[in-house]
Amino acid sequence: DAGVTQSPTHLIKTRGQQVTLRCSPKSGHDTVSWYQQALGQGPQFIFQYYEEEERQRGNFPDRFSGHQFPNYSSELNVNALLLGDSALYLCASSLPTGTYEQYFGPGTRLTVT
Amino acid sequence: DQQVKQNSPSLSVQEGRISILNCDYTNSMFDYFLWYKKYPAEGPTFLISISSIKDKNEDGRFTVFLNKSAKHLSLHIVPSQPGDSAVYFCAASEDSGYALNFGKGTSLLVTP
């Protein structure tokens, strides 16, 4: 049973560029959430996708956008990168209701220079 | 504004002893609480959870206690093992299937 997978593992970008991160959910899950974890902090909720729609959004600017595909996989896009966007980006999958547990992938380490 | 707080950044415990990790929250709408464990270069792994209608949940060596009036929960690990050394995150949610709010984590070191 495949768990949550993310690609790429590491990424280095220059300030002002755009980046796309990818996530495939755990088998049987149809809801995908994205979190940003800065150094020394806990994961912070960015947004959640269910049925290809953004269902809930955290306190992140519009530079952060996402997409969910019919096969439930998801992308996180960040435009106009800032140095402060350097972080570990975590994808989590879950069922849409009835359970609270979310299952995380290993993350993508983004460095903005 | 941090709604979930873990005030101890680190904790060191001897193997075989009890580890107690603490967590406080401010949002009274939280109705479900979870603990995650994270090793370096891996994503957080779900450990144990508790609903707000309970005050204790146990799973093997791990027990979570919830004190709703104090808005406080704790994770007990008995006995602690060196493999338990990791960062532990407390998380809370207002509704099933929705966003998790995390604390900053507590780094646990279990020494032989």
Produce a short descriptive summary.
The complex is a heterodimer of chains A (113) and B (112). Chain A is mainly β and 113 residues long.
Structural account:
The complex is a heterodimer of chains A (113) and B (112). Chain A is mainly beta and 113 residues long. Chain A has strands at 5-7, 10-13, 19-24, 31-37, 44-50, 53-57, 64-68, 74-78, 87-94, 103-104, 108-112. Chain B is built from no helices and eleven strands. Chain B has strands at 4-5, 10-14, 19-25, 32-38, 45-51, 56-59, 62-67, 72-77, 86-93, 101-102, 106-111. In chain B, strands 2, 4, 5, 9, 10 and 11 form a six-stranded mixed sheet that branches. A five-stranded antiparallel sheet of chain B has the order 1-3-8-7-6, with no helix packed on it. Classes of the chains: A mainly beta (113), B mainly beta (112). The interface between A and B is medium-sized, with 31 and 25 residues.
Report, as a whole number of angstroms, the end-to-end distance of chain A. Answer: 37 Å
Bin the strand percentage of chain B: over 45%
Order of helices and strands of chain B: EEEEEEEEEEE
Estimate the strand proportion of chain A: over 45%
User: What would the average pLDDT of chain B be, to the nearest integer?
Assistant: 95
| Unreliable residue stretches of chain B | none
Explain the layout of strands and helices.
The complex is a heterodimer of chains A (113) and B (112).
Chain A: E1 5-7, E2 10-13, E3 19-24, E4 31-37, E5 44-50, E6 53-57, E7 64-68, E8 74-78, E9 87-94, E10 103-104, E11 108-112
Parallel strand pairs in A: 2-11
Antiparallel strand pairs in A: 1-3, 3-8, 4-5, 4-9, 5-6, 7-8, 9-10, 9-11
Chain B: E1 4-5, E2 10-14, E3 19-25, E4 32-38, E5 45-51, E6 56-59, E7 62-67, E8 72-77, E9 86-93, E10 101-102, E11 106-111
Parallel strand pairs in B: 2-11
Antiparallel strand pairs in B: 1-3, 3-8, 4-5, 4-9, 6-7, 7-8, 9-10, 9-11
